[in-house]
């Protein structure tokens, strides 16, 4: 290293003999290992922190990656392989009839089943029926309560009650599942109403189902002439349907 | 003509490095210690190397004469430079760098004494007795004896006086700077230096038969 001595400012306190003698005595130089150590320390400190961190983070990242890969491979190789006999294939359902909407379980496979995809609109239609049934069942229950509250005598029925009867019939026709029950309930009132009732009311004629129901009721009641008359009217009104 | 215009334009927009960096080195100009330290603060290791080469030997001798123990001096030496390196981010060139450096060294030495109450005064530093081949044998012997006497007298000096003398001789500090480093006032530093020099002169001029 340099041997250039820094010449102190003269304060008049140090004579030249002492200075000269001292400089002859003190001529040691810094050991090389100290120079290297200090310069290495300085160079390490001057490096950016992220570069310093790279020296250990990179091997650590590699080690972590390799460990994860090995763990994944071991996990995959040690996992039990499902046998093919355990897998239930949905092929048998191709011939099966479309299940009822209420009883159809949710499909477990994410893959769309073509058979189910075709049956889906029908199932959706069926799925709407319970809601409709609930609504009509509630109305019919109210109707039953009204009927039960009133005495079923023929003279108490008037033309005013015909509207309520027609409404009940309409509900009964919508409620296909409860139609017999509704007929049983309403049968007594119909019989009680007597033969003065017209063959088919305007309400019955308004819809084909209720009209057909009315015709059926006329036949059941033995009023064949009226039934034939209504059937002819029905065929004329709905020529596209199959003639009755 | 077009080329001349291009050169003029380029010269106009060229920003000199000295203007961009306040402490940048101009041609044929020795950089100040504080400028080197600021450059090192910004990551210039070469600046630190230059700074280190300016001060390393003087600091080493200062610590060696102060401690009179080579291993201790080396430990303190590394400690001092480590603190200088660590303090680069907070370094402000408000004072002369050598004052800053030797204040750190002085404090490290004081800390070392406090940590090691049994401070050893073992003298394991042998003075360099290389003879000057141009001198006569009698003169060589006398100079060698004078050096030995001075080295012994330096060892025998009180610690404060030795510190002041070494700061004056090795670091080249004046009395104000010595006072700043040691924490004493200027008159105290001046008195210590005067006593130290007087004792050393007496030791050098001692008759040969006495030593």
The SSE order of chain A reads: HHHHHHHHH
Give the mean pLDDT of chain A: 68
Most strands sheet of chain A: none
**How many H/I helical runs of chain A?**
9
* Helix residue percentage of chain A: 55-70%
**Major beta sheet of chain B, specifics?**
none
**End-to-end CA span of chain A:** 124 Å
Given helix and strand content, the structural type of chain A is: mainly alpha
Largest interface between protein chains, with number of residues from each side: A-B, 37 and 50 residues
What is the oligomer described by this structure? heterodimer
Rg of chain A from C-alpha positions?
Answer: 51 Å
What portion of the residues of chain A fall into strands of 2 or more residues? under 5%
Q: What is the average of the pLDDT values of chain B?
A: 78
Radius of gyration of chain B: 23 Å
Describe this structure in words.
- The complex is a heterodimer of chains A (244) and B (211).
- With 244 residues, chain A is mostly helical.
- About 14% of the residues of chain A have low confidence.
- Chain A has nine helices and no strands.
- In chain A, helix 4 runs antiparallel to helix 5 and helix 5 runs antiparallel to helix 6.
- Chain B is mostly helical.
- The N and C termini of chain B lie far apart (84 Å).
- At the A-B interface, helix 1 and helix 2 of A face helix 4, helix 5, helix 7, helix 8 and helix 10 of B.
